[in-house]
Amino acid sequence: MKIQLSDHFTFSKLFHYTLPSIVMMVFTSIYGVVDGYFVSNFAGKIPFTAVNFIYPVLMILGCAGFMFGTGGGALIAKTLGERKPEEANRIFSLIVYASAVCGAVLGVLGLLSIRPIAVLLGARGQLLEDSVTYARVILLAIPAFILQFEFQCLFATAGKPALGLVVTVAAGVTNMVLDALFVAVFRWGLEGAAAATALSQCVGGVVPLVYFARPNSSLLRLGGSRLDWKALWKTCTNGSSELMSSISGSVVSMLYNAQLLRYAGEDGVAAYGVLMYVSLVFQAVFIGYSVGTAPVIGYHYGAQNHEELQGLRRRSMVVVTAFAAAMFASAQLLARPLSLVFVGYDQGLLELTTQAFFIFSFSFLFSGFAIFGSSFFTALNNGLVSAAISFLRTLVFQVSAVLIFPLIWKVDGIWLSIVAAEVLAVAVTAMFLWALRKKYQY
């Protein structure tokens, strides 16, 4: 089905246009899951805990790609809607070049500071050494990691979501094959798992560079540009919500790890790691849908097609509701089987993880609405509201809940805090959608 950004989007067209982005995000989230599976089953519990412990730090660096991708994608889509294709290509090229430079700088800073950061977060002994070992390999590929996240958003803006899916699947398969080879066959442990992930990120980040640098059939192509501080500022402010969401999510994960070390020891961190793996995959559905619809929303906003904006908002609420129900039901049914896959070798850890899973799964009923709401305002080029939703959802609601709830319900309070934060985030999202409906006429 040939679909253009300027089309009228029915449920069928929305499904076909966003499906590649959804699958793309799911495959990206599988990277960590695959690492976790092989490390847990072939390297042991402490290395598995180390991966879960240090990965939020690495995500803080990589999430700069989401900022450039979502913020830049919204600006590019709006420019295309205004019938300015040459300017859209200049902005696209500038964003790609700027993100590559940013990735190189962050990679160097990460290599210099990863050990002090791990110590500051509470890692000691073998947990510290394993965390640093895993992180240093991943940090070598941070520029590609950032570009991969960025292009996952920009392929949809370029009108080529299916091609973006192909690249992401190729990167995902690379990760799975190399993980099996390096960890299960060669027994390289953490270094092997990290190398597999780093090489797969290079596939996801470098292949799109080659595609867009050559003549292609998409709406965008890499070429000459100029330093445009206004466009970069708009990109960063537009994408600040996604940056805030990713950074604050990682910060919150560190706080959860610290609380779990206090209340449940290393087993608590391992159990939380399993939840985060599953959460990454499930929430990738919401994120992928939001990424897929963002350029469509941005285009019709730029074209001042208010009737289409109204239809996109209404249909998206229906889609998100359906996804939320499906995610919750799946999590309830798969709680124990998925826990067995990762930690079936330890009965005590298995019981802790299964109990956590049942409580945590209620968050899937609510999380998709805040994710879509934040993305919706990014697409409307309102980075302030989008960032406010993300900031409140994570750094305010989750931090407050995870500090207070364990005082009442101990370990179960940590799992309940995530659910409570998502409920409050939905309320805030609904408030913003209602308050700004007349301004944007959606």
Task: Give structural notes.
- By secondary structure, the chain is mostly helical.
- It has one domain.
- It has helices spanning 11-42, 45-62, 64-81, 85-120, 125-139, 142-157, 161-185, 189-213, 229-238, 240-263, 266-302, 306-343, 347-360, 367-379, 383-435, 437-440.
- The model has no long low-confidence stretch (mean pLDDT 88).
In a nutshell, what does this entry contain?
By secondary structure, the chain is mainly α. 86% of the residues lie in helices and 0% in strands.
List keywords for this structure.
globular, mainly alpha, 0% strand, 16 helices, single chain
Number of helices: 16
User: How would you describe the shape?
Assistant: globular
Order of helices and strands: HHHHHHHHHHHHHHHH
Contiguous uncertain segments of 5+ residues: none
State the end-to-end distance: 26 Å
* DSSP, total strands: 0
- For the record, the count of structural domains works out to 1
Structural class label:
mainly alpha
